[in-house]
Amino acid sequence: MVCVSWFRSNSSPVSYPIRCTCINLDYFKQMHVVVLSPEPSVKRRKFHETLLHARRLLPVPHIALLEAGLPYELVKVDIRAKKLENGEDYLKLNPKGQVPALGLDSGEIVTEGPVIVQMIADQAPATALTPARDSSERYKLLEWLNFLTSEVHKSFGPLFAPALNDEAKAFFKDRVLGKLKYIDSQLAGRDYLMGKQFTVADGYLFTMLTWGDRMKFDLSAMPNLTAYKARVAARPMVQEALKKEGLVQAS
């Protein structure tokens, strides 16, 4: 089930077809594939821009795609077997076998979520999901994305490991809470991480806060973060992502 739609970047005169594939893998996992193919009149070799996430993650690129207004459609794959729904070998697209990954029409494969969401945001500059290149604000966004991926996300990872004992998980939970306390302090007087403007970093942080919900994290001592989470959750495109991921019931 792949749908190709067209959009024109505000920064480019070239029209691009966007194909996004959400692949439900098991109770927790699903995959997203997006394709950007310039020069639509030319038949090209098939490649995928792939965004693969565990369902528990609420795919960060899914929020970015919706906020950016880029068309896409969802399809299924078996991540355990490393197969796309059509039987294609995922490892041929991404030899790492990990997620997320982005495969361009040129055949280039790009990985790492923070990079992928910036690429999505750059296709829709009018949405201001990422600040302008070379601006001081852009570097601040990069600082947040690196902090979220290297400090918060990395510390969350062991909490999903079934083989890890309770004592070890308690250690990593305390580490995550310490990082969240820092974020709470930085959100004082701000609507979002970058101030008044929602960016791709907010989709990333919100995703991890939903993991904390499932792990019964107590954020009552972090009022700024609690208000922030509610604010992001109320965004229409975030609600749409939650519904499409099956994490909330559609009304």
Keywords summarizing the entry:
251 residues; alpha+beta; Glutaredoxin; Glutathione S-transferase Yfyf (Class Pi), Chain A, domain 2; disordered N terminus
- CATH class bucket of the largest domain: Alpha Beta
Number of helices: 8
CATH topology of the largest domain: Glutaredoxin
Please give the order of strands in the largest beta sheet: 1-2-3-4
Distance between the termini: 25 Å
What's the CATH architecture of the largest domain? 3-Layer(aba) Sandwich
Q: From N to C, what is the helix and strand string?
A: EEEEHEEHEEHHHHHH
Average residue-wise pLDDT: 77
- Net shape: globular
Number of domains: 2
Helix content range: 25-40%
Task: Give the biggest sheet.
Answer: 4 strands, antiparallel
Count of distinct strands:
8
Portion in beta strands: 15-25%
Gyration radius, to the nearest Å? 18 Å
SS class: alpha+beta
Which consecutive residue ranges, at least 5 long each, have pLDDT under 50?
Answer: 1-57
Describe the 3D structure.
A hairpin with a 5-residue loop joins β7 and β8 (109-111). The longest helix has 21 residues, at 136-156. By secondary structure, the chain is of the alpha+beta class. The chain has helices at 60-68, 90-93, 113-122, 136-156, 166-186, 200-214, 223-233, 236-244; strands spanning 5-8, 15-24, 29-36, 49-54, 77-78, 83-84, 101-103, 109-111. The chain has 2 domains: 5-127, Glutaredoxin; 136-244, Up-down Bundle (Glutathione S-transferase Yfyf (Class Pi), Chain A, domain 2). The strands form 3 sheets. Strands 1-2-3-4 form a 4-stranded antiparallel sheet, covered by helices on one side. The model is unreliable at 1-57 (pLDDT under 50). α1 packs across α8, α4 (136-156) packs antiparallel against α5 and α4 (136-156) packs parallel to α6. It is built from 8 helices and 8 strands, in the order ββββαββαββαααααα. It is globular.
